[in-house]
Design a protein that fits this description.
By secondary structure, chain A is mainly alpha-helical. Chain A is built from eleven helices and no strands. Chain B is an all-alpha fold. The chains are: A mainly alpha, B mainly alpha.
């Protein structure tokens, strides 16, 4: 073998280890029975997973994350899908491209900047320290993902199918619900999954907008790493990683269905 | 014409909910933040009569006689303690001494109808206190915070001057933010460019594995990745344990709570944003270009530097812009992995907002960060749009 391919393989392997190593390396620590996050692991137990469901702070934060994540998913998917339908097939006029840019801008604006603005504004309308406020904040950053996913799914809908349905006498609403949306459904579902994942992982806006009662799992993990690191954090991370794998598989299955 | 009109109406109706939502909860908060950076309404709202009385004053000699009475009226008219407290804080931050002076004056004025302020406290005879009040009530807008964000201030004559050495560290923090972001971008290029080239040069399962290794962290929670690095980098973490086990080091090598740890963790988080644009540019390059260069007699290295590298530059530039832009606004990773000397501009904004309740400074620094990010995003959009046209 020539030296170049070996060099290539070694380099690629090193980068893969850099990318995946830390994630793989921490997983076994979620099963430690010690209070320290060190190797070697003295003994195995599920005490830190039990802590996640029994300790009030963790349990509340998991429930909050599910509540806020569901609210965000519903709101972002609804708003994003409607807007994607509205933007569909529009020529790229100045107005249309400005709208698209504004809708995608939350992906770009630094979260701390948006957080400061939201805290100031939400305080005026009594939205700080409320579930609604946190759901609204998360929806702002989750909507772009829905818009991108649904837009690209709608691009794949053959307009002739809709024309055929309309020519056979289907009302516009019937065409939408019986033809367009079912074909675009995989895109809508993957947009919704992205919205849920975004909400689940959001920390910075939550720091600014949420009160102690709306503490989410990500916020609780942030506080735990910052204040008193415990193996519960790795158990939470393990739950997250397993959830990610399940979500990715779901998304892959949907993509395959789409193709 | 008519069906076109109804189509437009339908599109507008479909877009309206998201547009209204984004205007209310994305645009308005950003505008609120920007306004808080330049607004200074406390004194003008609390002292309207004083503002009128002092409006024609040249701020050098004694203030006009009517100013004292107007000020006394304003102080008596203040309805709640909260407004008085805001006023005290505002004036005291401009000139210390106002806290005791205003407290004493208010108590004296509450008792009787006298308006001779000089008899309440001799300091009311000094011009400097009146100058401070005149400046505070002159306008509900201020450039103080924006200037302070880049370590500048107004001197006595109203000109813009540098703050005294050591008074403010904002410029230092901005430089640190730029340096850290540049280091992360550089690390991402050094790792990402060759990695994308390797990934583009192989096929089948090898390519799937290499791309999967990039995508999986991208889909993993940022908190999880940061926690993972925390565990790996800590003093008795995996890396230090391995180094010690191999007998390479006696004590732990400090990998965390310093710049090195921040750069490592941020590179890990942002690497996908470098690899993916480069990869998508590389797979679009015709596969026979390199053999063509070789057949014309180019040494592989020469072919690499003259053919492959220039062609992949577009991807590198997009990736570098994305990584640098994202790195500028990073908060979580420096906050958790970095030490006190590694905090970037976002941490300072968060401190001003949540720790010090200084919305003016939080807004001003936020405005600076927002402007830099939008500028980079505009350049990025320009490049990608040109690419699509080409």
């Amino acid at each position: 073998m020539r030296p170049l391919p070996i060099l290539k393989a070694v380099f690629a392997a090193l980068v893969v280890i850099f990318l995946l190593g830390p994630l793989v390396a921490v997983l076994p620590l979620s099963l430690t029975d010690s209070v320290f996050l060190n190797y070697p692991i003295p003994g195995y137990s599920t005490r830190w997973f039990r802590e996640l469901v029994t300790a009030d702070s963790w349990r509340l934060s998991i429930v909050n994350s599910l509540l806020i994540g569901s609210g965000t998913t519903v709101l972002a998917t609804l708003l994003g899908t409607l807007a994607a339908l509205g933007l569909r097939g529009r020529r790229a006029t100045l107005l249309v491209s400005t709208l698209r840019t504004v809708f995608l801008l939350p992906m770009v604006v630094p979260a701390v900047v948006l957080g400061v603005g939201m805290q100031l504004m939400f305080a005026r309308y009594g939205l700080t320290n409320t579930y609604l406020g946190v759901i609204i904040a998360h929806t702002v950053v989750a909507v772009p993902f829905v818009l991108v996913n649904v837009s690209s799914a709608l691009q794949g809908v053959d307009i002739r199918l809709e024309q055929a349905a309309a020519s056979l006498g289907a009302a516009p609403a019937t065409v939408l619900f019986a033809v367009t949306l079912p074909i675009a459904l995989p895109g809508i579902i993957s947009g919704a999954l992205f919205a849920f994942a975004t909400s689940l992982d959001e920390v910075v806006l939550t720091l600014f907008v949420a009160g102690p009662n709306q503490r989410t799992l990500a916020r609780q993990m942030f506080a735990t790493i910052r204040e008193n690191i415990s193996p519960a954090i790795v158990s939470a991370a393990a739950v997250f990683i397993l959830g990610t794998i399940v979500l990715s598989l779901a998304m892959l299955a949907i993509r395959r269905q789409m193709a | 014409m008519r069906p076109d009109l109804s189509l437009r109406l339908k599109a507008a109706l479909l877009l309206a909910p998201l547009l209204a939502f984004m205007l209310s909860f994305f645009v308005v908060p950003l505008v609120t933040m920007m306004k808080s950076a330049v607004s200074d309404p406390v004194a003008t709202e609390a002292l309207p009569r004083t503002a009128r009385a002092l409006s024609g004053w040249d701020r050098t000699g004694a203030p006009p006689a009517s100013a004292q009475a107007a000020f006394a009226d304003d102080i008596r008219a203040l309805k709640n303690d909260e407004q008085f407290g805001d006023l005290v804080r505002r004036l005291n931050s401009a000139q210390s001494g106002f806290r005791s002076l205003l407290g004493k004056t208010r108590r004296a004025l509450d008792g009787n109808g006298a308006t001779d302020l000089a008899s309440v406290d001799a300091r009311w005879g000094e011009t400097s206190y009146w100058v401070t009040i005149a400046e505070a009530v002159a306008s509900p807008w201020t450039d103080k915070n924006l200037l302070a964000a880049v370590d500048l201030e107004r001197n006595a004559s109203g000109g813009i001057a540098a703050m005294p050495e050591g008074a403010s560290a904002n410029r230092l923090i901005m430089i640190r933010t730029f340096v850290t972001s540049a280091l992360v971008t550089l690390a991402c290029i050094l790792i990402g460019l060759p990695y994308a080239m390797v990934a583009a040069s192989v096929e089948g399962w090898r390519r799937q594995v290499l791309l999967g290794a990039v995508l999986l962290p991208l889909w993993t929670s940022l908190l999880v990745r940061t926690a993972a690095w925390y565990v790996v980098l800590q003093d008795n973490g995996l890396i230090n344990a391995t180094l010690k086990g191999l007998g390479l080091t006696a004590g732990p090598v400090p990998l965390m709570f310093n710049r090195l740890g921040v750069v490592i963790a941020m590179t890990h988080v942002l690497l996908p944003f470098m690899v993916l644009p480069i990869f998508s540019v590389l797979i679009a390059i015709p596969r026979n270009l390199m053999p063509a260069a070789a057949s014309l007699g180019a040494h592989p290295l020469r072919a690499f530097f003259h053919v492959l590298l220039p062609l992949s530059m577009r991807g590198v530039v997009s990736g570098a812009l994305l990584v640098f832009m994202a790195a500028l606004g990073y908060y979580i990773t420096p906050a958790l992995i970095g030490g006190a000397n590694d905090q970037m501009i976002s941490s300072v904004i968060a401190y001003y907002a949540t720790g010090a309740a200084n919305w003016g400074m939080a807004g001003a620094l936020g405005l600076v960060l927002l402007a830099m990010t939008i500028l980079l995003y505009a350049i990025y959009m320009r490049l990608t749009v040109e690419e699509q046209r080409a």
